[in-house]
Amino acid sequence: MKTTIAEVGKYVGQVVTIGAWLSNKRSSGKIAFLQLRDGTGFMQGVVVISEVDEKVFEAAKSITQESSIYVTGEIRVDERSPFGYELGVQNIEVIQEAVDYPITPKEHGVEFLMDHRHLWIRSKKQHSIMKIRNEVIRATYEFFNENGFVKVDPPILTGSAPEGTTELFQTKYFDEDAFLSQSGQLYMEAAAMALGKVFSFGPTFRAEKSKTRRHLIEFWMIEPEMAFYEFEDSLKVQEEYVSFIVQSVLKNCKLELGVLERDVTKLEKITAPFPRISYDEAIEFLKNKGFTDIEWGDDFGAPHETAIAESYEKPVFITHYPTSLKPFYMQPHPTREDVVLCADMIAPEGYGEIIGGSERVHDHDLLKQRLEEHGLLDGAYKWYLQLRQYGSVPHSGFGLGLERTVAWISGADHVRETIPFPRLLNRLYP
């Protein structure tokens, strides 16, 4: 009977065959312990010299790291193991013997591991982070599907910059210029006018020359847009969504969080509602914390966000940023011209901003004025302005950065570990 490591609990006391790779091993004179992995999980295989043919025990001693094998044996309960089961090995069939596998159990430098990312993702820690990433994605679809959202896929090639920046990758689209998308937001606004509540999930690109542990050149975003949702409505969706994905990881990734030695007591506190602090209050808070050089109108950097987040056990919203700091499409505050109806969600434990969102400008003349002020009133935004001509309504949306969110939930040191093949300022390989 063939099965996978994830399914062995169904076969306690039975003999099964598992296709696996040998991640590590240790042996004494009469017993060998094989650390097996098959993509679905990790488990130990135990080979006892007195219980198998001599050929099988010799194979167990000589098999090399990352060789592929079929291993047959009896599934047994193992209460000492976090996994809960082990395999009493009866037979080993080598499929392909790996020679001189470059990533050994010793310590390796980050650049070496990044050069071998195609192999590094096989390791137990990286495997666990990828499983948590998958759970966040699965829970995302569950949350939005259960709350009446429709999945819409915006284009990756665009003719304009959603945020009017120059941090774009430009390419030729036959005889005209095009850009790799830095956000699907504008297209999602159009979709919301057709379908009410929508969300997208896809790659985005920022030609930002940053080397911090929070930045990637290519990353994935979840971007919901909601017709007839005002600013406060959107904040409620954001905190409920983040709470949902964190609780889903806690429920479904216990083993992976254990491998990563993540302090789950911190994650257990992540339930809506979340605290809020206005930009004005944040400036005063930072001045009192010793950031004497920051002034009203300045943007926040990583140290500022971390200082604010350290005062809370949950993610915190920073709301109502200055108009001058934010893109053209954000709705102004009803009683103040100097701030807009926006919020950034800052994750605890120094992981920084994981969500940016706002109510969008829905008045045609105001949006036209904003586009003029930003030098963007050209043909590329004609269709976007038209959305305010034909049945415009108040609407809001936000974008969650997947990799930063996974880094926070998993406790990873750097976002490069939270995407299978990271694209960084100095890295396009492998």
UniProtKB/TrEMBL annotation:
The keyword Ligase applies. Its main location: cytoplasm. It catalyses: tRNA(Asn) + L-asparagine + ATP = L-asparaginyl-tRNA(Asn) + AMP + diphosphate + H(+). Its EC number is 6.1.1.22. CDD domains: AsnRS_cyto_like_N, AsxRS_core. It comes from the Bacteria. Residues 130-430 form the Aminoacyl-transfer RNA synthetases class-II family profile domain. InterPro entries: Aa-tRNA-synt_II, aa-tRNA-synth_II, aa-tRNA-synth_II/BPL/LPL, Asn-tRNA-ligase, Asp/Asn-tRNA-synth_IIb, NA-bd_OB-fold, NA-bd_OB_tRNA. Keywords: Aminoacyl-tRNA synthetase, ATP-binding, Cytoplasm, Ligase, Nucleotide-binding, Protein biosynthesis. NCBIfam families: asnS, PRK03932.1, PRK05159.1. Homodimer. This is Asparagine--tRNA ligase.
